[in-house]
UniProtKB/TrEMBL annotation:
Keywords: Endoplasmic reticulum, Membrane, Protein transport, Translocation, Transmembrane, Transmembrane helix, Transport. The chain crosses the membrane at residues 124-146, 153-186. This is Translocation protein SEC62. Residues 217-272 are annotated as: Disordered. The keyword Coiled coil does not apply. Belongs to the SEC62 family. It is a multi-pass membrane protein. Its main location: endoplasmic reticulum. Pfam families: Sec62. GO terms for biological process: post-translational protein targeting to membrane, translocation. It is found in: Endoplasmic reticulum membrane. One of its GO terms (cellular component) is endoplasmic reticulum membrane.
């Protein structure tokens, strides 16, 4: 857009930071006039400008509080790097399909509003990836012209990769067989390499070596909510069963709270 080219250098750097992966903004996918766009909530952009990652950047305007962050984001919004949108229902028949987006004419920045990106960020990675893809394709087409040593090295490399993939499948099958055996012999069962399919690094996938198949513990938050619910039920039950009641007392002019100590009154015996 022309407005983005007219933006000051510091505003462009802020937009590049927010669009990059180091900002940590939670980006969602929406549909605007049939075209998919990334959008985010204003609150996440404010947090990004107050994060330590922003402070490590050089040449960016300083931000110390939320008011300064929102003012800076208002400046980025003024040059149409992102525009305020209204989120509607799903664009498809499924509830998980992208939400419909509609641009709002009155542009302003607010932490509870949604904003769609109209800025793709730095394009050097896209250009570099395209050049690398073309180079790989040319190298594959010219494979018959390679020297015999290079072709032999590629053959050994391909055999090694196929061997690693086959070893992975063998480990997966063996661990499943061992798990089924241990369910019968030593319940509740033992998993070899329990993190083999977890979203961790290559080395962490093989640590620890084995682990019992124990059920996962409930989180503390759920247990706290359960305890609070039980306390509320007990208090309701005690109030209904014991016949407790609350007596309204007229307020006095004294601002200090009255003492809550018990008071005993002498009552004449009616049988006397």
């Amino acid at each position: 857009m022309e407005q983005q080219l007219k933006a000051p250098q510091d505003i462009q750097k802020v937009a590049q930071f927010l669009r990059g992966g180091s900002a940590g903004i939670k980006v969602r996918v929406g549909a605007l006039n049939g075209k998919r766009l990334d959008y985010f909530k204003g609150k996440s952009a404010t947090k990004a400008l107050l994060s330590p990652a922003y402070k490590k950047q050089k040449g960016l305007p300083p931000v110390t509080n939320e008011a300064e962050a929102q003012a800076l984001l208002q400046g980025v919004n003024a040059f149409a790097f992102f525009l305020r949108v209204q989120r509607g229902g799903p664009s498809g028949s499924s509830s998980s399909s992208p939400k419909n987006l509609q641009i709002i004419q009155e542009q302003m920045f607010g932490p509870d509003e949604y904003y769609a990106w109209f800025y793709e960020g730095s394009q050097w990675t896209t250009y570099a990836g395209g050049i690398l893809m073309v180079a790989i394709m040319l190298a594959g087409v010219m494979f018959p012209l390679w020297p015999p040593i290079m072709r032999l090295g590629v053959w050994y490399l391909s055999i090694g990769m196929l061997g690693l993939i086959g070893l992975f499948f063998v480990i997966a099958i063996l661990r499943l067989i061992f798990y089924v055996i241990t369910i019968v012999v030593a319940s509740p069962g033992i998993w070899i390499f329990p993190k083999l399919f977890a979203d961790v690094g290559f080395v962490e996938s093989f640590i620890p070596l084995w682990e019992w198949d124990l059920p996962k513990k409930k989180s503390k938050k759920k247990s706290e909510k359960g305890e609070k619910g039980e306390k509320k039920e007990k208090s309701k039950g005690s109030s209904n069963g014991a016949g407790a009641y609350i007596e309204e007392v007229e307020e006095s002019g004294d601002s200090r709270p009255h003492s809550r100590s018990a008071r005993i009154e002498e009552v004449e015996d009616e049988d006397a």
